[in-house]
Amino acid sequence: MSLYDLFLAPLADYGFMRRALVACLCLSLGCGPIGVFLMMRRMSLMGDALSHAVLPGAAIGYLVAGSLSLTAMGIGGLIAGLSVALLAGVVSRATSLAEDASFASFYLTSLALGVLIVSLRGSNIDLLHVLFGTILAIDSDALIEIGTITSVTLVALALIYRPLVAECFDPGFLRAVGGRGPLYHVAFLVLVVLNLVASFQALGTLMAVGLMMLPAAIAQLWSRTLPVMLAIASVTALLSGYLGLIASYHLELASGPTIIVTAALFYGLSILIAPSGLARRYFPRPHLTG
Amino acid sequence: MSGATTKAAAERGAALTLQNLTVTYDRHPAVHHVSGTLKAGSLTAIAGPNGAGKSTLLKAIVGELRPAEGRIEHGLAARDIGYLPQAAEINRRFPINVLDTVLLGDWHQSGAFGRVARAARERAQEALSTVGLDGFERRPIGSLSAGQFQRVLFARLLMQEARLILLDEPFTAIDARTTHDLLALVSRWHGEGRTVVAVLHDFEQVRSHFPETLLIARELIGWGPTTEVMAPANLLKARAMAERWDETAPVCEPAA
């Protein structure tokens, strides 16, 4: 088997593989940076919660459309995710519950509701698709949707980069200079939900955050400056997507989980050999003179 | 230039006026019926025992806490106030370098979306060398010691060119050398005609560096020249007042 057969033939031969790869490219460009910011805001688990919150909306979209229509499910998921994000924020400000506690309550409710709604009408196969995604079934419409979300994300991130960094680094300062921190917090949450919806179509609710958090964790192991971290996150997400797709094709594995497992392998490797990883700890380099 | 205009303001009088100010936590007053005037261009220490409402007073002035009663009048925009909180909610592990942190002080010019002017970069460099951190521009925040980090925050305040500067326990857990350098910066601000207020618990520092003092123990005990306010009788009174805490305190009725 030549290198061509191994790495390019699956893409050259099958349209669905090409579309899946383009979807991975879009997802990695959007989700990578979003994941880094989530991690910087210490909201890693919040992303997970939000991805579950997308489910009931997607399920209702599925019921309304009557099939696994990615557009209907995407719109439903967007509405559900945004409402949970905002409701959780409102509840934590209005009561003494911390934001993570109210997020936890909301997302468990959403997950239960979502699975209930899907099981009302659909088969177990459908349920599996909703939970684990259908990256190989992505059609051009869904691809355009994902691409649009990615473009919006990149433009928006470029616009709100400075206030977002200030809000992550020192929210008190931003408040003191009248920088409208909460506004950027909400804008950022909207971006998170948008990207979860995009990623939900490919990887399902249970693993939608996979391409956000794993690359972000890898980036944090390799770099100490934010722009480099953002780039590393995107590149590792793309590499995991591509290698995962190829591996799932040759080994006949489910593609979504294979992509995440590939990212996890990169993560494990990084823990071992990255500058702030284990290797440096057990084989330290000699110290400098000053 | 700006020094001259603030000097002019100093002659006009008040930088800030408190009118019967009460700030509460769960209805218990932390600052109770405090009135008075902060002279423009003055250098004032806020002193008092633990739980006397010193930090609360600063938070009310910057607008983080809303008065339960009374008013704070200062006619300053948010950009004119530089505030250094005690337990800053700063994420020290955030991947940002020293220069970018100091440049945040240029927010009133560059804002959320504007360009950071070359002049601002030069001013940031200057601010860094003023606080004795030449060559630290590219160092990540996470690699600094507590004292160095406090110097960075002072450099950021320097960038802000605020007319009213509020410092909350700025020298707690900071080494003597850094404290000495930063106190010099505080007197420089005073010399430039800015109004500076600092919450301090070290009475020696207050006596030797701050001409005016506001002594508070939830209620105002004294506000004026340090030598008069920090008299032993006042200090004794402050200590006695702060130790009272009444879970079942009745509603405070206005004095007839």
Automatic annotation (TrEMBL), chain A:
Q: Provide the primary localization.
A: membrane
Transmembrane helix found in the keyword field: yes
For this protein, the record's Pfam families field holds: ABC-3 (PF00950)
Q: Which UniProt keywords apply?
A: Membrane, Transmembrane, Transmembrane helix, Transport
* Topology of this chain in the membrane: Multi-pass membrane protein
Gene3D superfamilies tied to this protein: ABC transporter involved in vitamin B12 uptake, BtuC
- GTP-binding is among the record's keywords: no
**UniProt family annotation:** Belongs to the ABC-3 integral membrane protein family.
Q: What is this protein called?
A: Metal ABC transporter permease
UniProtKB/TrEMBL annotation, chain B:
Query: What does the UniProt keyword field contain?
Result: ATP-binding, Ion transport, Nucleotide-binding, Transport, Zinc, Zinc transport
Q: Where is the ABC transporter domain?
A: 16-243
Keyword Zinc found: yes
Classification via Pfam families: ABC_tran (PF00005)
UniProt-listed GO biological process terms: zinc ion transport
Which named protein is this? Answer: ABC transporter ATP-binding protein
Family designation: Belongs to the ABC transporter superfamily.
Signal peptide extent: none
Q: SUPFAM superfamilies attached here?
A: P-loop containing nucleoside triphosphate hydrolases (SSF52540)
Q: Which organism is it from?
A: Rhizobium straminoryzae
PANTHER family, from UniProt? IRON TRANSPORT SYSTEM ATP-BINDING PROTEIN HI_0361-RELATED, METAL TRANSPORT SYSTEM ATP-BINDING PROTEIN TM_0124-RELATED
GO MF terms here are: ATP binding; ATP hydrolysis activity
